[in-house]
Design brief:
Elements (H helix, E strand, L loop, with lengths): L1 H14 L7 H19 L4 E7 L7 E9 L5 E9 L5 E3 L12
Antiparallel strand pairs: 1-2, 2-3, 3-4
């Protein structure tokens, strides 16, 4: 009976999805998002930096990329990194310095 229980437990453990990721895996994910987002904005922004949400949403890595636009204006762009396909998309330029705080 104990052998049957151990065999069932082993099969269940092997087939169960991983519910927690290691710190190293999350750091690697954040670096991948940062690299992808900086590359996607390299034609638009000079001296860009990215602030990456450490976990993203369920389906996407998320970042805000900031840098100097062609008009020598500091702007930010929202970047979305598809966790499954690794595709990167960016939104338009946001002038956060000119934004009205509420």
């Amino acid at each position: 009976m104990l052998k049957q229980f151990a065999a069932v437990a082993l099969v269940f453990a092997a087939s169960a999805p991983a519910f927690a990721s290691s710190d190293d895996a999350w750091k690697e994910f954040a670096a991948e998002v940062e690299t992808g987002c900086l590359a996607a904005t390299s034609d638009t922004l000079k001296d860009a930096t990215a602030v990456v949400d450490p976990f993203g949403s369920e389906s996407y890595g998320l970042a805000v990329v900031s840098g100097i636009a062609g008009t020598d204006t500091q702007v930010s762009m929202i970047c979305v990194f598809d966790k499954e396909t690794k595709a990167v998309e960016v939104g338009g330029e946001l002038d956060l310095a000119g934004a009205v705080k509420r």
